[in-house]
Each structure stands twice: as C-alpha cells, then as structure tokens.
Amino acid sequence: MQLLGIDIGGSGIKGAPVNIAAGNLVAERLRLATPSPSTPDAVAGVIRQITESFGTTSGPVGITFPGVVKHGRILTAANMDPAWIGFDAATFFSAKLGRPALVINDADAAGLAEMRFGAGRGIGGTVILLTLGTGVGSAVFLDGQLVPNTEFGHMEVRGKDAETRASDRVREEKDLAWEQWGERVGEVIARLAFLLNPDLVIIGGGVSRKAEKFLPVVQGMVKVPVVPAQLQNQAGLIGAALVAAGSAASA
Ligand code: BGC
C-alpha cells in the first residue's frame, strides 16, 4: 500500500508517497520552504500544493507537526506560529485536503519509522530517538510501544532549554565546530541517560547523515549505545505514512 506522508518542519515542509510495507519512498520527496509566518492557513496552502503534486496517491494522509499533538490538536509550537496552539489541526487539514488527515508529533513519527524499519528494529527495553534539527525532538519506546509526546528537547541542561544548546540550527547559527557541538549533544544524552536509563539512543534528523563528524564525541561521553538513524531525514515521512496506514487499517 502507498500512502502520502508529509513532514512539517520549522524550516521546510516535505512530502512523498511511501510504500508502507517496505518502509521507503516511492517517488522523490518534494520540499518547500515553511512559510513565514507559519500560520495554519499558510502551512495548509503548502501542504495542498505538495499533495496535489503527487496526484496519484489517495486515501488518508499522515502529517507530522513539530510540537505536542493530542487527538489531532496542537498543544505546543516552539518553532511555529503561536496560532497553532490549541488548534484542531487534524480536522482543519482534513477539510482543506478533502481526505482524512492524521497528525502526529514529528519526532514520534520518525521514531515509529526507525523502530519498524531502521536502527530500532527488534530492540526491546527503552529506546529513545532524539531528532536534531530546527528544534530537538524526542520519541520514547518501551518494548516497541511509543510513549507519545515526550519533550526532552526542552529538558534543562546547564540552566538552559536543551534545544537552545544542541539543535542543528544552533550549530549552524553559532558556527560551532562539530566536536564542540558534539559535546553539547553528549551532555543532553548524558542527562537523558541518567534520568531514563535507556537501552539504546538513536540520533535522527538530517544531521544523522553526518554522524561520523560528531557521534564519536557523544559516544565517548556516555555508556549507553548511541547510533545514527538509518532512515535519516526520511524517517518523519515514513512514520507519517505509517500513522495514516493505521487509520486506513482501522477504518
Ligand atoms: C518541539 C517538539 C518537536 C521538536 C522537533 C521541539 O521544539 O517542542 O515537539 O518534536 O521541536 O521538531
């Protein structure tokens, strides 16, 4: 089965049809810039454009959002327009697209994909996926089951929001050397490891493609195994489609 996955990020909105049995994209993804301001109407316009460009896919659409999402409603929006807070995104997108839309937190979606098809496959116990992008997101799994909407990117580290020290955006903005940024990421993971004692930590986000530049520093700072995501920046899209598939299956 092929379903459309859409990944809303603080800087880009991506979409692609996904083969949900194989866990891969069946066409090259389309990426458009996140509009500024990133209001619901502006974002829906971009999503519509992406959806229309993949005219062949039908059925439910899975959409990720970079904030807490409960029952389709957005509860936080650290890197998006505040108009999203309290907004029923699932109902809104369904109406705008004319087909069912399922909305899930972006890190949770990436985690679902990594657990099914990537670095977390077959791993029991506590697995944490940390996405490092415009913000820092987290997904926690216990024996393969997602504990949704964890927000460890906003954990306090050195008196600051972890995201404001260790996101990839901060690395770029402050032009941090990979080693220096790696230490910041390592501090966040050390704190997480102290609090949750996970069995595995997976690093996701586009930066996971460059893991060799910073992961050795992180690994030297913590005892828990830390590995890069295998689906890299496709994980969010694949996870979004998996969520849509869940709704298709139960419909
Ligand atoms: C948000 C999370 C999100 C993460 C990555 C954070 O600022 O609070 O919900 O998963 O950014 O986009």
Mean pLDDT over all positions: 95
Shape: globular
Distance between the termini: 15 Å
In the CATH hierarchy, what is the class of the largest domain?
A: Alpha Beta
CATH topology of the largest domain, which one? Nucleotidyltransferase, domain 5
Annotated CATH architecture of the largest domain: 2-Layer Sandwich
Radius of gyration: 17 Å
How many domains?
2
Biggest β-sheet strands, sense, barrel: 6 strands, mixed
Q: Helix count?
A: 8
Q: Structural class per helix/strand content? A: alpha/beta
- Which cofactor or ligand species appear? beta-D-glucopyranose
The helix content is 25-40%
State the order of secondary-structure elements, H for helix, E for strand: EEEEHEEEHEHEEEEEHHHEHEH
Beta-strand percentage?
A: 25-35%
Oligomer classification? single chain
Assign the CATH superfamily of the largest domain.
Answer: ATPase, nucleotide binding domain
How would you explain this protein's 3D organization?
The mean pLDDT is 95. This protein is α/β, with parallel strands linked by helices and 251 residues long. The two termini are 15 Å apart. It is 37% helix and 25% strand. It folds into two domains: 2-108 and 234-244, 2-Layer Sandwich (Nucleotidyltransferase, domain 5), CATH 3.30.420; 121-230, Nucleotidyltransferase, domain 5 (2-Layer Sandwich). Strand 14 (200-204), helix 7 and strand 15 form a beta-alpha-beta unit. It has helices spanning 40-53, 89-97, 106-117, 162-166, 168-173, 178-196, 211-221, 235-250; strands spanning 2-8, 12-19, 24-25, 30-33, 61-65, 69-70, 73-74, 101-105, 126-132, 136-142, 145-147, 156-157, 160-161, 200-204, 226-228. The protein is built from eight helices and 15 strands. The strands form four sheets. Strands 1, 2, 3, 4, 5 and 8 form a six-stranded mixed beta sheet that branches. Strands 11-10-9-14-15 form a five-stranded mixed beta sheet, with helices on both faces. A two-stranded antiparallel sheet has the order 6-7. The protein binds beta-D-glucopyranose. Residues 66-68, 76, 78-79, 105-107, 131, 133, 135-137, 151, 153-154, 163 line the site of beta-D-glucopyranose. Beta-D-glucopyranose binds at residues 66-68, 76, 78-79, 105-107, 131, 133, 135-137, 151, 153-154, 163.
